[in-house]
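Q: What structure does this chain adopt?
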Amino acid sequence: MFDANLYIFIALCVSVVVLIILSLSRAIVHDKVINLQAPLATESEVLARIREKRETLTDLEGELEKRRAALANVADIQAELDATVRQLDEAKTEWEQMSERREEILALRHETEQARVERLEIETELVGQKAELEHVRDRLERADALVGRIEELESRKTELEISLAALRDEEQDLKDAEAELRRIVEKIDDLTQLEGTLTGKLEAKKAEISEQQERINSLRNFRAGVDAELDAVNATLAAAKQKSTDVEEHAARLEEQVLTLEARKAVLEDAVRKLNAKSSGGADPDEDPMRELKQRPQVIERLVEWSEPERIDEADAIKNVKKRFDAFALQYPERTLRAFHTSMKVNDTTQMTVLAGISGTGKSQLPRQYAAGMGIGFLQVPVQPRWDSPQDLMGFYNYIEGRFRPTDMARALYALDTINNPENAVQDRMMMVLLDEMNLARVEYYFSDFLSRLESRPARDAVGEANLRKDAEIELEIPNAVTRIFPGYNLLFAGTMNEDESTQSLSDKVVDRANVMRFGAPKTISKGQRKTGAIEANALSLKAWERWCNRSLRADEKSAVDDAVNSMLELMRDFGKPFGHRLGRAIEAYATVYPEAEGVSDRVGTALADQIEMRLLPKLRGVDVEEKAAEFEALERMASKFGDDSLAEAVRKSVEDAELTGQFVWKGVIR
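A:
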């Protein structure tokens, strides 16, 4: 608008200037015309025209004054115009400088418009939210009511949990009582059968005793007659000696008769003594009560028949076991074979190895074929559900028969005892005893005492000291005879255990003294075929075995093992499952004798990971996984640190599977 007024003002000024110029031009032209017409006009006309011209001049001068005033105004207007132009330039400059501000204003206007749109959308949404809020308030009111109900239910739940715990304790007591009742019933059945057998034997013995008594009476009567006859002969002999020397020949014959009668008397007295011993339930004093114990079982006879290799390296022996596995179509990871082999080597600190898992996973075949491949005698002892004392493992003394009835295990142990059976013992040989399905009966009933004996064995180089050895020796219950068996380091012990409703769980005492190898379900079913042909068997010498066990750690390895054991101790303490010096020494011993193997760069780390699997995880059964989540994560990190990611993943999987029950159950690792 300012630009339009300026242009109008300039146009007006130009118009005024043009008008003045036209007026002046017109006056000049008019004067020229008059000058040309002067000769023709008269004086009056000239005067009139002069007056007219003067008037016109006066008018022009007035007009000129007006125009001059106007021109002065034009100059002022021009000055104002110039100032206005300058202001215009400044305004243009400022306008150009204000472009960014205009853009910001435009952007602000755009944002304002968007905000208005968003406000409308929010207001629209707010209406819906208000309705939803009302709905939520209704739900909250219902939730408050539910919370009250939940609190009531929680209180009821607590009461029910207390009742459930009491019922579980009562159920366990009932189960124990039921198991005890079954055991008692089985014992009663056995005793009933034994009673029937003994009753029959007793009746037979009574008849035999009656017959023997009659014979004894008859012999006594005969003896009385012999004594009377002997007295008569002696009297006759005395009389004859007094009568005369003529009867010396007759006396000699009588003396010979006396000697014969005395010999018969001795025989009869011995027969009477034996009959009296049998009639009172004793044994024949001429019969050895240990006769059956001294008879070698078949496993020892076969072990003696094996030829002994001159010298064999540990790696070659393990290869022989692998060949044995291949021949019998058995598939075990090399890691499992090395773990079992190392567990056997530490039988001085860890008394046995337990192979646990579901049925049909090769738990029994592993120790059997391992022993055959190594050249070690193998004795399988099937555990019976009724076993409840060490006698079931070693045998018992039969007081009726007057002899000791040993098991094959007792006979084998006695045949390998070079200390208590030095003359007939098998020298420089080894044997493995497998307690098959060892948890069909309560292990602490029949094996606890034997396990304590194994643990009490002195060091290998101190076995010869009787005072140190006495607590480890097993004394057999044989009347009037002291018979001991020392389970030496030439014996290896393993056990298998299935996990189903018919089995018992292992006690802490057994778990603390065993390497527990858990066999998981296989990923695929093996379709291997057993190879035909005989496999040569060579016996492994005890000296070679002890040479394999005689290893030591380097200083850096020893430090790494010590740090690892301390970390395990601290972690298990956090779990609420601490362990003592025995287990710490056992872990160190396992890491020390772990064999070198191709493809295993860190044998110490591998051995420590094995000990997590076999010694620590079985002790965590029943631990609350939610409460100890941080500790289980630390255990996973420790397994990964030792290079066993498969073990770490298996621990994580077992923890995840325990979320339903809340209690940890180790399910093993599939390698």
